[in-house]
Structures are given as C-alpha cells and as structure tokens.
Amino acid sequence: MADETKMKPATVAAQALGWIDEETRAVVPPLHPSSTFVRDADNGYSSGRSYSRADNPTYDQAEAVLAALENGAGAALFSSGMAAATAVFLSLKPGDHVVISRVMYWSLRSWLLGFATDWGLKVAVADTTDLAALEAAMRPGETKLVWIETPGNPTLAVTDIAAAAEIAHAAGARLAVDSTVATPVFTRPLDLGADIVMHSATKSLNGHSDAIAGALVTRATDAQWEKIKLIRIQSGAVLGTFEAWLLLRGMRTLYPRVRTAAANAMAVAEHFRGHPLVEETLYPGLADFPGHAVAARQMQGGFGSLMSIRVKGGESAAIAAAASVKIWKRATSLGGVESLIEHRASVEGAQSPAPPDLLRMSVGIEDASDLIDDFEQALAAAQRGFQP
Ligand SMILES: *Cc1c(COP(=O)(O)O)cnc(C)c1O
C-alpha cells in the first residue's frame, strides 16, 4: 500500500486512499448490505462486527478518506447532516450553554431554538463574524460548545475559525465547524484549531444529489467522541450502506468537481457584481465582500460554489427571476454538479437572516457562460414583469 501520509489530498480522494480489496484485488470496494455478522463458537465477535446499527464495513474506507482529508483522528458517517450535527449537541448535557452563529443552516437553528432548548440546552445566538460579539456571548466555564458555520448559508457570512477556536478554548469550550460550504478542498478547520468538523455529505462531498448523508471528523478520539459515536448507535442515526458506497464513489471526484464549481461561482459572481439589475452579489471570493480578507486567509485555492444575489426590485423581482431561469434548476440543496437557485427567505421563515430579495445560488460544473447567460435573461424577464 502507498504511504498514505505522503499523498496530497487530491490523490487521497481520487484513489480513496489507494486501498484495494485484499480478497479480490478490486480497486472499487464491495458493498456490505449485511445487517448482522456471525458470532464465533466461543460466543465472541473476533471480526469486531456484530450488527450494522453499530457499524458496517462499508463505512470504513469512506470514514478513513474523510479523516485523511480533514486531517482528523477519526470520522463517523451519519444518516444525514442533521443527524451528524444534532449528535454533537446531544453529547452535551441539559443545562449546558452553547453559542451558535447567527447565519447558519436554518433547519439546525430551528432544532436548536426548538427541540434542544426544550431539552434544556441554553442556546445563545451570536454574530460570529464579529469576534467581540462572540466573546461577549461566551460564559467562561459554562459554555461547552461554540458552533460556527463558515461561509454561512445563505448570506456567506465568514467567521474566523482560528480566532473563534482561541475564544472558545479560552472559555473552556470546544469549537465545532459546519464546513459543508467550504469543503475540505478549501478549508481544513481542524488545522485552524477546531475540535470537530461537520459536513452535510449530501452536498459537495457526494456531489451528485443522489444521497442524503452526514459526517463528523474529530481532532481527538476522546470521551466526547465516544459519546457521539454511542449516540449514533443508540439513536440509530446510521447511514445506509448503499449511500455510504455512493459517498465514497462521489468523493473520488471531489477535487475536480469542487474546483470547477468554485471557478464557475467566481465567474458568475464577478459578472453580476455591480450589474444594473443586481442590488448586491454575495460571494467570499469578491475582493469587496466583507468577509473576503478572512476567507482569503482560511480558504486555500478557492472560495466554494455557493453564492447569493440580491435582486433589484425586492422580493417579487427575486421570485420572478427564479421563476424565469431555464438552465438553473429551482430547487433546494447545494454542492451538486447541477446549478440550483432558491429564494431563501420564503423557505427559512421569521428567524432567517436572508433578506427578502435574496436568491441563493449553488453553482455547478456546467459551462459558466451558460449559467451567466441564463441568469441574465432571467433578470431581464423579471424586470419586464416587475416594471411592465
Ligand atoms: C444541507 C445542510 C445541512 C443539513 O444536512 P442534511 O444532509 O440535509 O441533513 C447542514 N448544514 C449545511 C450548511 C447544509 O447545507
């Protein structure tokens, strides 16, 4: 086997660590659908496997690839990004205090302010792009976890991971980062001081919009990590084996997919910045974007495939533009090979930081000029409808 420690990340991903199936010499691993594993005659489990709610051999390679890409000590697959994220919070205790980013995945925010708060977690929401605001929200000794998302969805708010880690650690808390939008291609939060990285593997990691999956990667395989893994087993938040296999296949093309999509996003963002029908273009790669300097420091080689455009003429113009696209697909989700567009305020509800004129755009790997031309005609069509 090749020396995994010397391979560059793009090689690790393309070859899925270079593992081969020892039994058959296959370069693509087998899928193990078995829910159960045979016990030894002495009643033990020398294979280390007993039942697939605890673990499944199909996870091994995908988890090893993720740990390698994020430079972590261990990784765990979950049934969804939400299952991964909620397992981290459920590993705390009722009464514990946590601080979360104001701009974050809306469904997780709503779980935290609803279920988790009812369960007893004390949840403080802070604008984590402002380090003084983050510091002010901390309760030293009481705050157990800081949860940030960067770039944050859907306004692309950028939080300084290294600075947030320092603030969290100084108060005796851990730092977890939802790095779904950044991907390990551009950001490695553990290298910047984070303790846990979370991914909705449904998005760029799998990349083909054909599986729901989540993942956590940890800096240390400590007691909290063991508790998180126990929560996965006990709550049954396990990934189906077919999805685990699809995820491993998807991750082989992670680097070229995500790099192409990020280059396309940069082209689309640059084209529509300052456009007469556009109020504001939100993309961390733009030099005048508020979080650009921090993003440039903590994102290497690109700024991701997610961006947002605020359409001139307000909510109705934005919805009309989304209604007029022909190539972009009007759908939720992000990080797939196909470009998606969505009016977020109408999805996220009252607590959303999304302005009503905002369209979130997940840029895919199509020809960038098709994406630009299509959104141009959609803006023009919306404007004609808006000012007849
Ligand atoms: C989609 C998403 C999630 C939730 O992941 P699921 O796989 O849909 O459960 C969490 N965070 C971000 C940033 C996401 O985009």
How would you characterize the overall build of this protein?
With 388 residues, this protein is of the alpha/beta class. The N and C termini lie far apart (66 Å). Helix content is 38%, strand content 15%. The longest helix is centred in the C-terminal third of the chain and has 19 residues. It folds into two domains: 248 residues, 3-Layer(aba) Sandwich (Aspartate Aminotransferase, domain 2); 130 residues, Alpha-Beta Complex (Aspartate Aminotransferase, domain 1). The strands form two sheets. Strands 1-7-6-5-4-2-3 form a seven-stranded mixed sheet, with helices on both faces. Helix 7 links the parallel strand 5 and strand 6. The structure holds pyridoxal-5'-phosphate. The site of pyridoxal-5'-phosphate (PLP) has 16 residues, from helix 3.
